[in-house]
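Appendix B. Raw example, untouched.
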Amino acid sequence: MTWYRFLLLFFPTRFRREYASDLLQLARERMNDARMRGHVAALRQAARLIRDAITQATLEHWTVHRSRHRRSRARQAMLNRQTPLLPANTRRIMLETMIQDIRFAWRGFRKTPGFTLVAILTLALGIGSNTAIFSLIDGVLLRPLKYGEPEELVVVWETNAAGGFDKSWTSTALFYDWREQSQTMTDLTGWAWATFILGQEGDTESQVVNGILVYPNFFKTLAVRPLLGRPFTEADAQ
């Protein structure tokens, strides 16, 4: 756990004296449990320990700086014997206090550039990961699909118990049986992944592209129109 001892150096001195041994013991126990589950689990646990250590160190340093600043202001107030604040000046005093806090934090960061860099990187990683996760959830779960009546769309799979597959592609013949005998669905369509060679006759160079094969009622079932051209018809499938 040499790497974790190095992470503990980011914590304030007083914090290390009181809690370093406990944190190190806790990290050993978590890593031992993770190694029993495999190398991937161990790597994930190590990543979580690094993230938590950097985040906690940032908070502890900020708490120390904040406490020192408050004690300094309290001593200065006692020396100057300031009078109680009037309600009319409360907003101005709050603004001045905020500006003083920002200046104090800036001076503290300038004195410890290494810690500042780690804090900025931690914030950047945290904000970036949260933004990416929210964008994914917003695009997949929160926003409705851009189809007509998306809440009524379902995916039908074939189960292959013998092969051990809960979801399996079906055959064309079985698809037409489902389509003709279904009494619960308005319509049923299908698709399959495929690879095509794109080019004109006589061209010396062609391009391989990925696409899907669909049934003629594909666009009708999804209640959408193609960006170019017209939807397929049953005659196109002949």
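End of appendix B.
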